[in-house]
Structure formats: C-alpha cells, structure tokens
Amino acid sequence: MNRRETLGIAVVGTGRMGADHVRRIDRVISGARVAAVVDIDRARAEAVAAGVDGCTAYVDADEAMASADVDAVLVASSGAAHEEALLAAFARDLPVLCEKPLTPDAASALRVMEAEVALGHRLVQVGFMRRYDTEYVRLKALLGTGQLGRPLMLHNRHRNVASPPFFTSSMLITDSVAHEVDVTRWLLGHEISAVTVLCPEPSSGAPGGLRDPQFVVLETDGGALSDVEIFVNCGFGYQVQAEAVCERGTARIGDGHELVTNMAGRWGGTIPQDWTERFAQAYDDEVQAWVDATRRGEVTGPSTWDGYAAAAVCEAGVRALETGRRVEVSLAERPGLYGAEV
Amino acid sequence: MNRRETLGIAVVGTGRMGADHVRRIDRVISGARVAAVVDIDRARAEAVAAGVDGCTAYVDADEAMASADVDAVLVASSGAAHEEALLAAFARDLPVLCEKPLTPDAASALRVMEAEVALGHRLVQVGFMRRYDTEYVRLKALLGTGQLGRPLMLHNRHRNVASPPFFTSSMLITDSVAHEVDVTRWLLGHEISAVTVLCPEPSSGAPGGLRDPQFVVLETDGGALSDVEIFVNCGFGYQVQAEAVCERGTARIGDGHELVTNMAGRWGGTIPQDWTERFAQAYDDEVQAWVDATRRGEVTGPSTWDGYAAAAVCEAGVRALETGRRVEVSLAERPGLYGAEV
Amino acid sequence: MNRRETLGIAVVGTGRMGADHVRRIDRVISGARVAAVVDIDRARAEAVAAGVDGCTAYVDADEAMASADVDAVLVASSGAAHEEALLAAFARDLPVLCEKPLTPDAASALRVMEAEVALGHRLVQVGFMRRYDTEYVRLKALLGTGQLGRPLMLHNRHRNVASPPFFTSSMLITDSVAHEVDVTRWLLGHEISAVTVLCPEPSSGAPGGLRDPQFVVLETDGGALSDVEIFVNCGFGYQVQAEAVCERGTARIGDGHELVTNMAGRWGGTIPQDWTERFAQAYDDEVQAWVDATRRGEVTGPSTWDGYAAAAVCEAGVRALETGRRVEVSLAERPGLYGAEV
Amino acid sequence: MNRRETLGIAVVGTGRMGADHVRRIDRVISGARVAAVVDIDRARAEAVAAGVDGCTAYVDADEAMASADVDAVLVASSGAAHEEALLAAFARDLPVLCEKPLTPDAASALRVMEAEVALGHRLVQVGFMRRYDTEYVRLKALLGTGQLGRPLMLHNRHRNVASPPFFTSSMLITDSVAHEVDVTRWLLGHEISAVTVLCPEPSSGAPGGLRDPQFVVLETDGGALSDVEIFVNCGFGYQVQAEAVCERGTARIGDGHELVTNMAGRWGGTIPQDWTERFAQAYDDEVQAWVDATRRGEVTGPSTWDGYAAAAVCEAGVRALETGRRVEVSLAERPGLYGAEV
User: Fold this and answer.
1) pLDDT at residue B3 above 50?
2) Is the pLDDT of residue C158 over 50?
3) Keywords for this entry (chains A, B, C, D) (predicted)?
4) Statement to judge: residues C199 and C323 lie in one domain
5) Domain check: are C296 and C168 in the same one?
6) Per the CB < 8 Å rule, is A266 touching C271?
7) CATH code for the domain in which residue A264 is found
8) Yes or no, beta carbons of D271 and B267 under 8 Å apart
9) D60 burial class (0-12, 13-18, 19+ CB within 10 angstroms)?
10) With contact defined as beta carbons under 8 Å apart, do D318 and C173 qualify?
11) Boundary (domain end) residue, out of A99, A127, A155
C-alpha cells in the first residue's frame, strides 16, 4: 500500500467504544477515514454512518470487509463476538485493531492465535491502550535505561468511581485487572506465573454481593511481584497509579504529578529542556482548531487585535526596560469587528 | 466550503517553526494537507516539499496563494516578513494562521488590523498557542466558573535553559514576555495599561551585556497586576508557570503537577471521574500508531500472544478469587511469530 | 553562669503572645522556667502566674527585673512599650528576647541600638522567628552551599485568612511584610535599598478602605530583587511561601511539600538517609508525653498488650517467611487492664 | 507526685539509642532530668554520665532503680535484656518507657504482661514512636473523624538505605515490619489474624543470602488487609509511607508532602488557618535557642541592628504605599558590635 493513501477503516461495533473510535478516526486521526461501520443493530449503524462523509452502514462484518473501500478493521464489538470478526479479517488478510479482551477466555484466544500463526504473519494489534499512555510510556522508557536497576516489585492502584450494574466479582479480574496483567507483562518483560487474590470485607459502597475491593498479587517468571489494588466503587474518582520498585530506586506515575522517581537521596521529576516538549500538545491543538474552524468557514482564536495589543505592550515594555521607569500603554480604539471580549 | 473537503494549506517559511508545522499538518492534523511551501531559499522549500505527497515548493508567497490547491495560509516566516504575507492573503481572502508576533511593532500591526477591518470580516488567527495548552485552558475555565472570585494578581515564571546567541535585552520583552502579555490579557479579560521593568544584577550564566533575568510588572485596566519573572539563561530547564490570585483562592499551573488550587482551607487538584478523561491521549495515540503502521504495511503494538496471555492469567485470577488460594498460570508455548520479547 | 543552672525568665506582657510564651517556657522548653510575669493589667498577670509553679506577678517590669529569680527577660508587650522595657533590661545587663517589632519606628530603634552599643556587648535577640523555621533554615542552608549559585530574585507569598478589625493599609507593611523584610535580609545577606508598593483593586473580601492585597518589590544593595504578595484577607488559609531564584536553579518552600528545588533538569526534594532525621520529632514527642503522663501519675501510650501482640504477629511472620505460606496468628486473651481498644 | 517536681529518670542501656535518649532528656525534654544511667559496660556508662549534671553511672539496673533520685525508668538496652529490667522496675513500682521490642518473643512478652496484670495497674509504655509522629497522628485523627468511611486496606512502604551487617532475613520482619504491625493495629483498631510473606528475587544490592525486599500481607480480625513492602537495602534513602484506603477515599503520608487525601473528586491537603499552626516549631526552637545561648552566656540570633533595619525599611514601605512611588531606604552606619554579616 502506498503510504500516502488514506486508510479506509471498517469499525465493527458502534456501541459507546465503537462510536468513540468512529469520532476519533473522523476528527482526530491523520491519514485514515471511516469507510464502513458494522452493527447487528442496523439503525444504530446507520445513525453513526450518517454523521461521517462516505461511510456505509452494514449489519454483517464480513460484507463490510469485502468492500473495496475497506483496508483495515477496528473491532469494538462485545468480547464474545471478537473471535468471529477476527477470523473473518484473517480470511481477507486485513489488519485489525481489536479492543481488549482479545477474546473472553484462553481457549478461544489460543484458537485465534493459531489461525494467525497459520497465516504466517501478524495482523492483530490488541487494544491495550495503556501502552500508549504518556505516563506509562515514560515509565517504560525509564526502566529501559537501566538507571534504576532491575525491577523487583510493581505496586498498582486501579480505582473507579462506581461499577456498572452488571459487574460481577470475577469481572474485577477479567475486565479491570486485565489492564494491570498486561501492564505488568509489558513493563517488566516477564510472563506471569502465579496469581493470589485477597478480599477485605467489601466496602459498604459496593453493591450487595460484590467482592470490592480486591487485592491481587501476581508473581512473574522473572522473579518479580506485582500487586494490584482493584476498587471499582471507590466513590471519589478514576485513578490509575503504578510504582516500580527497582534495585536502585523507584518510579511512580498517576497521582497528579508527572513521573516521580526516588533515587540517590532525591525524589522528584524531570523538567523539560525545550518548548517543543512543554507545548507540543498546544501546537497540535492550535493548528487542529484552526483547520476545523476554517473548514466550517469560521475564524476563531487570537485575533489581529490581540496581535496588535501585544505589540503595543511590548513596545512600552522595551521603553520601561530602557528608562527604568513605569510606562503607560496607549492603544488605538478597538474595532467592532473584534467584539467586546479581550 | 464543504466541511468534509480536505483543506489545502500553504506554509510560508520553512525554517525550524515552519518545517515543524509542515510535519504537524502532514502527520498529526486531521482534515488538512500541505499543498504548498514557500521560502525565499528555494532549495530549502524544495527539500521540505519533497517529503510531502502532492506538495509544491514556491519562492513567492503570492504565487503559492494563487494556486487552486491552496485554501488557507500558515505564516511562519520571520516577523519582519509577516505584514506582506498577511496583506497578500487578505487580497485573496484566504484565512491565515500567523505565528506570533503578528508583526514586529505596533504601527505595522495597526496597518494589518486596518486592512482586515476594511475587508469587514476576520481572516487572521494569531499563533498565541498557550491559549490551547491544556493547563492554561483549565486555568481559564476555572477562572470562568467564578468559584475563586475576581482575579487580583497573576504571578508568572518563564524560564529557558539558555538564550540563542542573537538574543538582546529587549527581546526578553518582545520575544518572551510577549507570551505573558497575551496570557494576561486572555486569562483576565483586561487590557494592559502600564508596564514596569526591574532588573536585578544579571546572572553570571547570561552572556555579557544581556540584562537577564528581568522582572516585569503589568498593570491592567481592570485593576489587576501581573508580574513576570523572565529568565532566559536559567540553566536548568524550560519552565512556564502561572498562579492566579483571586478573591477567594488561587490556582497554579506549570510545576510538575496538574492544576493546583488553594481554596477553602485545602490545596490540591481534581481527580478525573472517568477513563475517557484519563486515557483520552492514550486512545488517540494508539489508533494513530495503528493507522501509521498499517499504512507502512506493518503490524506493531500488543500482539495476539499478549491478548492470549492476558486471558490465561485472568482465568487463573478468577480461580484464585473463587478458591482463596494461589493459582499457578500455565501458558502454551510461544510461537516464533511473536518474537522473544514480552 | 553555670550552664546547668535553670534560667529564670521574666515575661513582660501577658496578652495572647506573652501567655503563649509562658506556656512554652513552662511546658516545652528545657533549662528554663517562668520566674516572673509582668502586665499593666494586674489581674491578667496574676491569673497567668497562678498556673505556673514559683512564678510571681508584677505590674512594673523594672521591679520584676530587680528580682533575684530573674536571669533574663522576654518582652512580649505591645510594640510601643518595647523601648522602655529594653532600656530597663539594659540597665540591669539582662539578656532579652524581644518580640518583633523591635520598636515601632526607625528613630526609636536607633535609640535602642545606640544604648546597646554604649554597653559594648549584645543583649538583644529580636523575635524574627522565621529564622528558626525548619523550611527557612533548610532554604538558607541550601543557599549557603553555593550549589544554586548567587540569588537573583526572591518571590514571597504571605497570606492570612482575614485581618483583625484594627488593621490598616500601612500595617500590611509594618506588621506583615516586616517578616519578609527580615527574611530577605537574612536569606540574601543584603541590606534593602529601595521599596515599591503596587496595589491592585482591593479584594471584595477585604474590609472597606483596606488596600488588600498589595504587591511590594524590595531592591537590595547586593543587586537582587525580592517581591512580596501580601494578602491578609485571602479567605482560604494561612500561607507563607518563598522561592529563591538563583543563577543555576531555584528553591521553594511553603506549599505543602518540603523544600523543592529546580536544578539541572530535575525538580524535587531530598529523601532523609536515616530514621533519626525522619522521626526526630516523634521521639521527642514520645518521651515528652511519657514524662508528662508520669508526672501526672498516669500511664498512657502503647501498652504491654501492644508489645505482646507485635511479638506474636512477628513470630507468625517469620514462620510465613520460612514456609512461604499464610500463617494464622493466635493471641492470648486480652486482660481487662488494657481496655477494649487496640 | 507533685506535677511540678522534676522527674528523675534512670536510662538503662547507653548504646546509640540510649545515649540519644539521654541527650533528649537533658536538652530537649521539659520537666525531667537524667538521674542515672546504667550499662554493663561501666566505662560507657560513666562517659555518658559525665556529660550530664547530677547523673550517676551504674552497672546494675536494680541498684540504679533503688536510688532515691530515680522516679522512672527508660529501658534502651538490647531486647534480650528487657524482661529482667522490666520485672525489676515492676518490683519497685516504677513507670517504664521500654524501647521496642517489648521482648524478643511472644512467650517472654506474655510473662511480662502477666506480671503487670498481677500488679493491677499499668507501668509500661512501649516505644512505638510512630504513634507520636505528626504525620501518623494526623492520619489517625482523619480516620477517626469517619469522613473517609471504614478503612479497607492499608498500603505501607518501609525502605532503608542499607541494612547493618548482622541483619538476617527474619529481622526484616521482627525489627522492621514490627513497626507496621503496630501501626496497622493502632490505625485500624484491629488485631492481626494472619500473615503471608512473599519474596521477589532478592535485589543485587542486598548482601548475599538476605531475602530483601519482602512483601508482607497482614489480615485483620476487622476484615481489613495491610500490605507492607519492606526493603532494607533500597540504596536511595529512608522512606516510610502509608496509604489508608477507605470506603469513601484514601489518605497518604510520607512522600515529601503533608497528609494527602483523595476524596470526592479532589486530591490534596489542608492549609493551616493560623500562624500558631504553621510556625509552632519555629517559636519553640527560637525560645530554646535563646535559652541555650543565654545559659552559655552568649547572645545570638537576630540583633538590634536587624530590628532597626526592618523598622527603617517598613517606614520607607509605608511612604511607597502612600505615594505610589519607589522610595529609597537610608540606613545609619552599622556599628561594629553587630559584625559584618546581615
């Protein structure tokens, strides 16, 4: 495929997660477009497709994948439906981004893996999105430098405000701790060899019968421990934290700071060395906002008046610097074109 | 213009900033493409154009704007060249994103403003990108709620590791404090009415003759004060901080925490309520990484093996929960397709 | 004087501050006792004296200083009365701890200084207690190491919840900023050479007519600047912060962290290397609590039961370590002597 | 005993910990004095006694306790010697502060407890000094308010730079985790019912054969879990942290911040409302420094010159406020009496 060609994507499943991916590909992602959406609820698929230029709604995933417009597949249907969608994509040799879990159990996951191995090349990226989170990425990079030495333990906290009504005690493991399972494997580069789960008396904030919170200890084949507090009815917020304890220091993410380390008698974080790092997001959002407004036929953001006012103040500032005195700023009258608001 | 049509942009100036905007539009921004680049250095323009599909190099900005492919202009040339580029864009009624400063002095900025007013509609967005920085946006939003009461003072810190060789004492005002001038006007919604600049004995880390650091006090027509420490050879990092002191509390950004407030006997920040807030960036980067790899014909990221391993561990975890005991995990053999790395 | 002899102190002034010093010398300070209290309000002096063993009440300071029991004087009366008390102590060559301000104006302070110089030796310690605050002490020590280079600027914040009814706009300077005046001189080792005061529109939380907040800029004879936000009706709490900006880094105290530095690409603080540093206060308070209880004829704090329970749990812990298994703890029955509470 | 009488204390054991307690009682503690020190090493006892006025050295603890000067006993000898010293104090009905551990094993602790119960009143305070640490005290107080709801889990971190040469794997439990055992019991008000110890592959920073770090999970009879990371060769510092996870929020101490809570969508800490809270330690240290200097016949701390200079600057400040202008400060010449240093 020519790198410059825009990728046509079929999104399978248009529930909350699928619809959010449709919006993301349509509005945020560069180099791709939503060519097709699939849902067994035809009305829902058509409603989503209606909001996207050149997007067709399907009920059958295989039919969507057969379309000449479709170059790749994003699977966001319920876990139970993943195996079928993945095998259909394999049959057409289409790359797939598959939301987690890959499939609901180890046996079906093994079948999918065997099918991919039979193809002889990878097609699947699993949706463990924490591997793309800036804080986890920085933590992984720091561990990779070897500055802290070998990781010995990983302490994880995973807290949700409240669990949805259908949540069961097992789902704290399969739906929530599943993320820490992947994070542990990825950060440490170990496989997990044993699991222990301890349950304190449940919180009175948890629905009756739900074992919440739980405390999970994972042991790895590299001799490390990873403990997880999972608390899905903590009531106060959504919080995901991790601290890697290594031979020569620790590093922690997720508690309102940037990455914080303990090392050589000091705790703290790094300071960027450059505006490209500090304001990368601001530049991206600025240009995206300008493109979006321009496509709508609008002009928004800082105006010529703002540019003029800054120039006038800076001129006064330079005089203040040169004279060592307070200098008053005088501005032209503000044209109505620029509204009343600064 | 149809919202769905991809915007063709001419980037004027292909120095460090212009080239970075070309990369941004080509790789990050959704709904736009670089149709043209302009530089008085033809070789530089052509080198940049060569890296972008369907992009033409020009020496003359007006010629580029005349192209049928160009719907909008991004001006990233040196400040002295802005007025001419802006007036050329006005002549063709093209929307412009103009890097700061709008122009180097108040008189020329006034001429540009008068030309835009004569057109009768806005065409210009000035590149004060801090208005798009997440931390400043949160601070502005908080001030807008009125929870903290009326702002009385704004304390700003603006620190660079080292200044470039051509930097003069005036440029600390016109190049650096210019950002705080805009931030003060935007956050407070006031115009600036007077400026005082105080200079301590220069740092021995500053080049000879440079008045660095400086301390600038801005007074506003709304009765507020905004003080700015500008220190362009601080040596230790790039740091931009602001604290708004209001009638009922203060709010601070930029020092390794998220937005921190002092209010009603408590200091601290907010906790997100949802994973959509905490992991928005991770989802965006995940999908962008998948699209980029797929367009290159590659499959990267978490593999089917990772999905299978997670399923196997979660199954063991559920058994551990149900039995209250440590459960060992057993995995199938890892196929060579997935490499040696976890 | 023999170092081991207990110091007899006359406390002059038994208002809020004086009474607190009486309590402090009686209950907290080692090696001293309150021998006399003085107040023009005889009843108040007697009430305070009644709570302290061997303490005599006086109306006249000079009479108290004449007592053979009095070795030193602590002046905590109103500022206007300080000059007379200091001169009386000088007449008897008694050491004095004098609450700030030394006297209310420069002329009277000069008279006191001339009298002390005439004596030929120092007798006075002025009550600038911030020089004894752990955070300021650490900041001063850090500046003294030279690690950060020469100090260029000092940013100070001084916030009170609400001002007392008698507070005037001048008192924000003479009563509040007086502390930052001393802190600036002490931290930097410079004299102050000029002062500028800027006032934003007063907060609606300030009493009518009070210029609150104010922004004060001090210039020093060493070429440094020290700016002070003084805000005595901030509404949210009592907050005293300082950031020293030096040639190679900055150091900040007072905002809910320990001393935090910016240096060489890192922000953060130090980690103690030893329990003697981390728990010094706990040991002091533990022993003081034990002494106080014992003198009252009581036994409080962790009991023999607590010691026993810890021993039993640790024994089980060692078995758990040795066997790699969960070990249950069994305790003897808890004797009634130790109450019901753990 | 009359509350005002100074308490005569016998300190048993004059090793590192005992000597530190002697210094503390002599120099820091109000209302007590060291009447006797006891050590089987007579030379060491005498050396310590020589530094304290009116202190007698003994080799035999019982003999020291028989002295009329001794009102109470502080036991700081090795753990194995505690039982005998405690029983001797019981025989004379003397109150005891006994360093932890009470005794080295549960059986001997039980014997001590039975002896005290037989007396019918408490004599022993065990030296679990964390119960007096400001941060733990604040955490306990917060839990007591019920704002956070019932505690469900306690996460503890206990890290030392390096272990002493004689440290064994069991001592990580009996010497180190012993503190968390008490903290868990005290903070939660529960007894501990079971213990599990997990060991990752030891750190290469630990001496050969030492199982370090260890991860200990304590279960309580109140249905809570308390996990402890104990890592006695972490290399970077001494760190003691705890986070209580409750039904409606969490609270954390020990990581370079004051007490930080997660509650109702906010993380953060409290701001003092008053200078008596913020500067309590500074006032105590100021007065102690003055008393100590005066007893040595010296005058230290802020001088009359400092008081005068502050008065002069404040006068200039008031004029700057009144005139809205920069006002220069002029000072008298500095008398030689006050040295050259500000």
Assistant:
1) no
2) yes
3) NAD, Oxidoreductase
4) no
5) no
6) yes
7) 3.30.360.10
8) yes
9) exposed
10) yes
11) A127
